[in-house]
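Tip: read the tokens left to right.
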């Protein structure tokens, strides 16, 4: 790993007598940086020897690293080649920017100072170009690094997101891990590297500090750990890349080799195969032209056939098969519970809209069933959910609320059709499908126990709402507590953590978000810059949550926090809509927010009057009913596809240590600790009380 450092102190004695008799070049200032010479990496031996230029190939480097005592050549091969007259002429022609000729005559050598002057001018030109490019880039987009630094935020660790790249094999990557990264504090024309340590982690992003800066944060910078410019220590030596100290501190130490050996002994770095694991975790099994069954965004109670149009970071842009202009689309993750294999609806008895297309289009093919997320098998032979049973459920049309709900139909394989009390259509067109193990349904009393506001049925006047009274008045029974999912994984989320989250009311948008509350496995997600009415209840294992830096890694567009002006503009338009449609009952449907930098999607208000189904499309036909999910959208702007695709990969070995000196509790009783804090609720436990109202 330190071959480059060792070679700096070696003094070759196998030079020819003619070379040793040559006059030595006067020493030059030692403030010039070092670079790579003929595939070998040289570092500062003592900081006093200055620079030299090879008279054969024109390479500039540390003088002590050059060949022979005269230091005229960078290697033995250049020394021997210099004996040819034609070669001498060719060298000078190259330095002058002219193409060499075979019959070139030997010309008088230019002074070394003249060569260095030309080289310095070339460096200045490149440096100015780099500054111009950096300034242009810095003006674009949202910076997670600046956002986190300026507010001292904390981001959710990558290990919280098992569906994300490297989520299951992140290992021990943490603060103080050392890596090799490009050295931006350098004016060399070639790309050089230096060692840096992780000061702070924020999802995939790491705040890095170059070795040698100690407690000085002057040149700290943010970088995506899974990016192509991050390497484990030792990569440069193995790849023949130069390690160059930053110009700001190049005179701080006289022996950089000894300094690095001391600093890196016992330190941790990335595993050698880290980049390979990143690449493997970004391979996705879903491909364009695959056919799936997906929820109909206009009629939530049924599914339709759609075709995968594109895959970005595991997120699918699905185009409904009957869409002629391919603008009727739907975004979701490949592990979303809203997509299924062809034939799923028929197999469980779910409503399905038959396509007008009689046969598959050329190139389209059915997605293999094993690629879809598996649901937990359940035994429906014993005590099971029955039609008419009451429960509490997250409203898929307003994810900020948990509502009084009823099981309307029991399907096969543990799936249930559920309706929100007080806002259902007579034909069941606004029922929606949840699996019995879904983390979005809860037993009666869940909200009261966990101090969550329960949304009562529309028109119910006996407030505050009491389940005991409501069950007696409706002649209903509550679904047995033991039938609900009681598993609570140790997910690792904490209140205040930052992440990137899908706005499930506009599923093509991924926004800057914060975890504001944790109830066991249930997370309250707040979109930064927006009011709390836009918050969403999401499961801790939802595939619609991503680590900080996911959008940058996959090439997806991130929506920054809303500015005050955009919020005020949206608020004004919402008030106008209310005045125009005040006769229609809005129920618990929240206002829709306008995506930042996007054309707002026009949503017809959702009438809640009895017998009329709720829909995002605005049409009132009585064909298959409207599910409660995502609104009809205009064609989304094209997202640049990721450079590579991803899939889950086996676990990565833990972070490598550098050696430089020497080689749910399952039971009958479901108890809940009253008044438990959000932090205490994170763990594997049962959290429902065993009682029937």
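Filled-in amino acids:
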């Amino acid at each position: 790993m330190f071959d480059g450092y060792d070679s700096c102190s070696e003094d070759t004695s196998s030079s020819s007598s003619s070379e040793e008799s040559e006059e030595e070049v006067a020493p030059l200032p030692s403030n010039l940086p070092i670079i790579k010479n003929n595939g070998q990496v040289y570092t500062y031996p003592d900081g006093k020897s200055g620079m030299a230029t090879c008279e054969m190939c024109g390479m500039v480097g540390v003088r002590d690293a050059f060949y022979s005592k005269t230091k005229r050549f960078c290697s033995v091969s250049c020394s021997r080649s210099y004996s040819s007259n034609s070669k001498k002429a060719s060298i000078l022609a190259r330095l002058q920017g002219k193409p060499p000729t075979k019959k070139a005559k030997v010309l008088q050598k230019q002074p070394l100072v003249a060569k260095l002057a030309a080289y310095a001018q070339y460096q200045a030109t490149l440096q100015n170009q780099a500054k111009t490019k950096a300034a242009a880039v810095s003006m674009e987009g949202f910076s997670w690094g600046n956002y986190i630094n300026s507010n001292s935020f904390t981001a959710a660790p990558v290990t919280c997101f098992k569906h994300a790249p490297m989520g299951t094999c992140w290992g021990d990557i943490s603060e103080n891990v050392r890596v090799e990264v490009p050295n931006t504090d350098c004016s060399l024309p070639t790309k050089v590297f230096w060692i840096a340590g992780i000061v702070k982690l924020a999802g995939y992003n790491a705040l890095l500090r170059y070795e040698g800066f100690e407690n000085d944060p002057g040149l700290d910078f943010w970088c995506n750990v899974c990016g192509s410019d991050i390497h484990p220590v030792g990569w440069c030596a193995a790849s023949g890349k130069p390690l160059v100290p930053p110009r700001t501190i190049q005179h701080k130490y006289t022996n950089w080799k000894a300094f690095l050996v001391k600093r890196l002994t016992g330190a941790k770095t990335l595993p050698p195969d880290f980049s390979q694991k990143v690449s493997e975790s970004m391979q996705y099994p879903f491909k364009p032209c695959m056919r799936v069954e997906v929820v109909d965004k206009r009629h939530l109670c049924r599914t339709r056939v759609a075709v995968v149009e594109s895959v970005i970071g595991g997120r699918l842009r699905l185009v409904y098969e009957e869409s002629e202009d391919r603008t009727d689309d739907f975004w979701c993750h490949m592990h979303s519970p809203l997509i299924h294999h062809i034939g799923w609806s028929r197999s469980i008895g779910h409503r399905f809209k038959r396509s007008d297309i009689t046969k598959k289009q050329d190139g389209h093919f059915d997605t293999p069933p094993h690629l879809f997320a598996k649901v937990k098998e359940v035994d429906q032979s014993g005590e099971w959910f029955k039609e008419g049973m009451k429960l509490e459920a997250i409203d898929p049309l307003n994810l900020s609320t948990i509502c009084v709900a009823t099981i309307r139909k029991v399907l096969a394989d543990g799936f249930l059709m559920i309706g929100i009390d007080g806002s259902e259509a007579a034909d069941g067109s606004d029922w929606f499908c949840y699996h019995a193990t879904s983390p979005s349904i809860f037993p009666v009393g869940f909200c009261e126990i966990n101090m969550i506001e329960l949304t009562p049925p529309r028109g119910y006047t006996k407030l505050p709402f009491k389940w005991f009274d409501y069950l007696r008045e409706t002649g209903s029974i509550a679904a047995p507590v033991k039938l609900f999912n009681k598993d609570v994984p140790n997910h690792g989320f904490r209140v205040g953590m930052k992440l990137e989250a899908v706005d499930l009311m506009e599923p093509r948008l991924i926004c800057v978000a914060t975890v504001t509350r944790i109830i066991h496995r249930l997370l309250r997600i707040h979109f930064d810059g927006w009011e709390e009415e836009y918050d969403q209840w999401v499961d801790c294992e939802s595939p619609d949550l991503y680590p900080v830096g996911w959008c940058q890694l996959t090439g997806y567009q991130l929506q920054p926090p809303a500015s005050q002006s955009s919020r005020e503009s949206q608020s004004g338009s919402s008030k106008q809509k209310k005045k125009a449609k005040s006769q229609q009952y809005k129920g618990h449907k929240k206002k829709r927010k306008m995506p930042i930098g996007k054309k707002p999607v026009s949503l017809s208000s959702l009438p809640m009057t009895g017998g009329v189904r709720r829909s995002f499309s605005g049409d009132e036909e009585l064909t298959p009913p409207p599910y409660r999910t995502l609104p009809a959208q205009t064609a989304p702007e094209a997202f640049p596809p990721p450079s590579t695709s991803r899939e889950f990969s086996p676990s990565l070995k833990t972070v490598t240590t550098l050696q430089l000196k020497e080689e749910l509790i399952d039971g009958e009783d479901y108890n809940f600790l009253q008044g438990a804090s959000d932090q205490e609720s994170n763990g594997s436990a049962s959290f429902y009380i065993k009682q029937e109202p």
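The mean pLDDT is 74. Residues 419 and 431 are 5 Å apart (CA to CA).
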